[in-house]
Inverse folding.
């Protein structure tokens, strides 16, 4: 996807993991590494994006993702505009375009976009002024690249290397933008075995083409894995006839300590949040020794700082380690 | 007034004509091919040496948007676009607002088309009232008002009992039923073919079975009712196979494919290109090959543009929210000729699929150059190259994925009832 890169190969937009190469993903992870310390300082700010204006453009409700983007922008000293736009008010393309033009007129340099339509971030990126960057904060079922990168960051911090890992992604892959981005990122970073585990109703057709192995039994899917990524299950999946009940889902696909036993002894358990305890994951596991779920949230800010600074052309010198 | 079109290479698939002949026209009718008939004197002669002369093209499924959606297109704009593309008959779908379920709407469309005086506009009546799929339309009255067939456009009927009764009732009046095979439940919220590309892009997918399940139901009901049926917009390999089997069993079934489905696949969606959003969706390479094979073998005897013009805003949206449909009147001939260049069809076969065969679906007088028939004639230069640009489109709808494509074969003259309605301006 050349739309994301400048002619010089620099990141201009961050819309999807697909089409980026391993050096680029590694650079994002390395840059994030240099930002992790910022949050631990007394003054949690660096002046990298001073004078820049970033608009959080959320067409779909989200507290967690928006908060981490907001914190990331503020820690980079950018000015931030938070906009919650009702998707129904922008069903017509014209008003979406009008929204963009207005924000451009306010001299915004970056849009962080969350939208319920797959491809919305691509659409916006292909229509913005040349000086504006777009970061996809989740579009429909398509992509959530910063979430995937913070997951990669978490994995790297715990496992150091990707080349020997077995990773299982468990849950609603059909509707998950996070899973699609994770699969691309894991593949690009060299993970040799990516498994997806879910009942057939939650596995999109031809997902094998993305280089994953499909399992419908949790026990087999988790055997010897080094990383388990649980996905959030939404209640509407019961109403839409994809699952009979939460109770049955937990019985066959819920992650419990007992189920965890078949995985590698040093397995880490991840979840993009917010969790449904007792539906996809048991509290004992969510709060247990293998869980790295809260670290994911912390790292999310560093990853978003990295991507924002790279897109706006002001990444810190990674080698120095100090932003 | 008499005219003669001289020196052209006449291709009339209905009569198996493929030779250089003059055509003579009087009072809007063809009066002879070849030597000038006795007592005939042409007041005007057109010399078209080197060009192909064929029956005016027929677009089987055109959404003209009027009445009710004039912000997208009008009968006037699309009739002019039609003759620009060599089309002399537009068979318009009933999904207007109000829908074509009363003789008054049929008359309105006919009157407006007559006032424009370009292409002929034939009207498909609604199969059910307001296209709601629950109560049968007054098909007898619609036929008497001039409707050529009945369809529920793109609104699929859920109730199998209503489908059955609609077919039986249409058969009573000798009307062809046009059927769009798409299961409404499997098609809910879909945006693209359910396949590898749709999965990767996170686009809600339309399964192949959404077409084949409804097709199976409809073919069984066609068999039971004996109605003459036309399947609109086949998109899957399995669908082609099912139609071939039904025809093999002697069922009175014809089928069409929209030309974009013969040239594009799901791979063309990779950049969320909303110009490629169509219904049924672009499917796999395998499906595309099977559709082409179906066209080659004649299982799919008619090609159409499935013309659906949109205002720019309808496509200026993220893919899932963009309106489906392609504006296709002015690429109907060019894409069909491309199939000849690619060796899939002979020129005779190709022109049959956009003239004679669509005429047969509705029993129209058009689609042939037989003496005594209306002089609806298309003349095109088969060697002329041209590029599709916005300026070249006369349709109000500029929504086409073929923008920028180079084509070979350009319309030079279009005649409707012997009247010159379009002539290519030399630069």
């Amino acid at each position: 996807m050349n739309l994301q890169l400048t002619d010089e190969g620099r990141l201009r937009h961050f819309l999807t993991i697909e089409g980026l190469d391993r050096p680029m993903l590694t650079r994002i992870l390395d840059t994030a590494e240099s930002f992790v310390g910022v949050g631990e300082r007394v003054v949690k700010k660096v002046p990298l994006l001073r004078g820049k204006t970033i608009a959080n453009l959320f067409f779909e409700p989200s507290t967690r993702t928006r908060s981490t983007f907001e914190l990331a922008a503020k820690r980079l000293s950018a000015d931030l505009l938070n906009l919650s736009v009702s998707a129904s008010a922008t069903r017509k393309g014209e008003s979406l375009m009008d929204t963009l033009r207005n924000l451009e007129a306010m001299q915004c340099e970056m849009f962080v976009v969350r939208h319920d339509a797959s491809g919305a971030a691509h659409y916006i990126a292909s229509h913005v002024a040349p000086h504006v960057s777009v970061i996809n904060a989740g579009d429909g079922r398509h992509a959530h690249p910063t979430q995937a990168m913070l997951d990669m960051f978490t994995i790297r911090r715990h496992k150091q290397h990707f080349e020997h890992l077995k990773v299982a992604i468990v849950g609603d892959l059909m509707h998950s933008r996070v899973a699609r981005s994770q699969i691309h990122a894991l593949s690009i970073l060299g993970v040799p075995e990516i498994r997806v585990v879910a009942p057939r109703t939650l596995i999109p057709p031809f997902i094998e083409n993305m280089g994953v192995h499909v399992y419908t039994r949790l026990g087999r899917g988790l055997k010897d894995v080094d990383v388990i990524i649980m996905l959030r299950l939404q209640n509407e999946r019961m109403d839409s006839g994809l699952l009979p009940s939460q109770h049955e889902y937990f019985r066959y696909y819920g992650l419990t300590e007992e189920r965890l036993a078949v995985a590698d002894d040093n397995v880490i358990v991840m979840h993009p949040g917010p969790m449904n305890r007792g539906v996809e994951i048991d509290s004992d596991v969510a709060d247990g020794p293998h869980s790295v779920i809260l670290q994911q949230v912390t790292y999310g800010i560093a990853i978003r700082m990295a991507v924002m600074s790279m897109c706006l052309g002001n990444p810190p010198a990674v080698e120095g380690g100090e932003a | 007034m008499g005219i003669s079109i001289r020196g052209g290479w006449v291709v009339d698939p209905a009569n198996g004509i493929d030779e250089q002949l003059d055509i003579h026209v009087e009072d809007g009718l063809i009066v002879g091919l070849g030597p000038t008939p006795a007592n005939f004197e042409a007041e005007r002669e057109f010399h078209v040496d080197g060009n192909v002369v064929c029956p005016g093209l027929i677009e089987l499924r055109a959404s003209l948007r009027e009445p009710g959606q004039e912000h997208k297109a009008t009968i006037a704009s699309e009739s002019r676009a039609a003759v620009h593309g060599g089309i002399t008959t537009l068979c318009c779908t009933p999904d207007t607002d109000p829908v074509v379920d009363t003789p008054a709407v049929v008359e309105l469309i006919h009157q407006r088309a007559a006032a424009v005086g370009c292409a002929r506009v034939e009207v498909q009546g609604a199969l059910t009232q307001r296209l709601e799929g629950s109560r049968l339309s007054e098909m007898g009255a619609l036929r008497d008002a001039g409707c050529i067939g009945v369809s529920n456009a793109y609104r699929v009927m859920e109730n199998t009992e209503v489908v059955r009764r609609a077919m039986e009732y249409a058969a009573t009046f000798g009307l062809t039923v046009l059927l769009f095979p798409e299961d409404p439940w499997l098609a809910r919220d879909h945006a693209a073919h359910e396949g590898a590309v749709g999965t990767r892009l996170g686009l809600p997918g339309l399964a192949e079975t959404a077409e084949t399940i409804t097709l199976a139901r409809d073919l069984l009901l066609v068999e039971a009712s004996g109605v003459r049926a036309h399947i609109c917009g086949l998109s899957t390999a399995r669908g082609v196979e099912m139609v071939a089997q039904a025809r093999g069993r002697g069922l009175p079934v014809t089928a069409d494919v929209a030309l974009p489905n013969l040239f594009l696949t799901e791979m063309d969606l990779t950049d969320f290109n909303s110009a490629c959003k169509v219904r049924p969706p672009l499917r796999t390479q395998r499906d595309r090959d099977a559709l082409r094979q179906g066209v080659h073998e004649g299982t799919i005897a008619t090609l159409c543009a499935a013309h659906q013009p949109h205002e720019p805003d309808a496509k200026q949206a993220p893919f899932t929210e963009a309106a489906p449909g392609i504006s296709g009147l002015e690429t109907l001939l060019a894409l069909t000729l491309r199939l000849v260049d690619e060796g899939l069809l002979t020129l005779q076969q190709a022109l049959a699929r956009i003239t004679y065969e669509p005429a047969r679906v509705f029993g129209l007088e058009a689609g042939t150059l037989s003496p005594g028939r209306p002089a609806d004639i298309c003349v095109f230069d088969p060697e002329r190259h041209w590029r599709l640009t916005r300026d070249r489109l006369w349709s109000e709808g500029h929504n086409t994925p073929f923008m920028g494509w180079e084509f070979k074969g350009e319309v030079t003259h279009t005649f409707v009832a012997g009247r010159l309605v379009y002539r290519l301006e030399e630069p």
